[in-house]
Each structure stands twice: as C-alpha cells, then as structure tokens.
Design goal:
Elements lengths: L2 H80 L4 H28 L2 H6 L1 H16 L2 E5 L11 H20 L3 E9 L2 E8 L15 H12 L3 E7 L3 E8 L6
Parallel strand pairs: 1-2
Antiparallel strand pairs: 2-3, 3-5, 4-5
Length: about 250
Amino acid sequence: MPERELTLVTLFVAGSLTVAILLAAFLAALLLSQRRRIALERQHTKRILAAQEEERSRVARELHDDALQRLAVIRHELDDVGRVVGPEARHRLGGVGGELEDLAAVLRTAAHQLHPSVVEKAGLVRALGDLAAEFGRTAGLDVEVTLPAAEVAVAPGVGVAVYRIAQEALRNVVRHAGVARADLTLEAGQEGLALSVGDAGKGFDAGQGGQENGLGLIAMRQRAEAVGGRLTVTARPAGGTVVAAVFPSGGAR
C-alpha cells in the first residue's frame, strides 16, 4: 500500500476511534446525569414523604391529646347534667352522649390510621390486618387478607410505604370500584416483599387516563419508588383492578 494511502487509512481509523471515544464519553455522561437526576428526585420524594408522615403524626397527636380529651370532658359534663334534669331531657342528653361516643370512635380510628408508628408498634402484618378490619367497620368493605403467618422484619421506611399504599388502594376500592369486597395479599421472601390489593369492581381503562393519572395512584407510585420499589396497576373496564407493589431489594430482612 502506498505511503499516502496508508496515512489516509491511519487518519481515518484514528478519527473513527476519536469519534467513538467521544460518543462513549457523551453517553456515559448522559447516563451519569440521568442517574443523578433520578437519585435527586428520589431524595426529594423521600423528604416530602417524611414531611407528610411528620404532619400526619402531629395531627394524630392533636386528635388524641386534644380533640378526644375534650370529647371526654363534654361527655362527663352531659352525664352530670343528666342527673339533675327530667326524664325527657335525660333521654335527649343520652342520645347526644351516644353521638359523642360515635364521634370519638371515628376520631380514634383516624388518629390510629394517621400515625406512622402504627407499623412500628404493631408490626407490618398486624397493622395490615387491623387496617383491613377498620375498613370493614368504617366503610363496610369486606377485605379478604392473605398475610404471612409470622411477623416480618422490614427495611426502614418500607413498612410505612407498604401500609400507606394498601391504605390508599383500599380507599380507591371504596370510592371507585362499586363493590363491597376486596383482596389484600402480602408475600415475604428472600427476594423482598410483594403487596397486592385487588377488586372485581368497575375497573378503568388505563390507556384513557382517569384513575390511572389520579393523585392517589401518583402518590402510591412515589412511595414505592422512594424506597426502591415498583408499583403497577392492572385494570380492565369490566374486570376490576389490581394494585401491586414489589420491593425486591432490602424490602424484607
């Protein structure tokens, strides 16, 4: 090969290698930038969710330490008044007292569900069982639960995320499904945790938006992703809805 042609080939090869190196460097920088953006978004979501849980905890404490205590005082005063009035007034006061007791029960349930320590104190399995029972009492929703026989240890933050996702999914059943029954399943294994909440209700067309783009589902996805999990929604217009969340790495420990 003539020297001039050899030089051209060498320059071509060198140029091609340079372009390839620059392209590889650009792609690596782009990938690194995307990873940093995802990490920053996840950290931002964690901070928001932590602030929300702190606010929930504050509201729960106020309900328990202030509102419920005031209701107890009012109930006691009604009892005192009932001892000095006539039968008719006593009967009416008794009805008011019953309403106050019902209101106190509602507030206690709300405080219990709001407080994030419900998972820490009771454990995830028991907390989910109690959650299902509360939906039965307060919303008339029959929740069929399938839970591990023993309590499972979960990584920090995962237990609260699983509980809140189940809570929101059951709320969606009550609000949108048009049925009085749902299924809640939690599976724990060496690979992590898997939660699913399903119903045989109206369903929705995920391709047409609707509930799929609702704030509730967005919040559930953010909660799952903030602790390394993934949430999917499977829905058919006539076949019901299944919300599934998987926490594959470090979910169960």
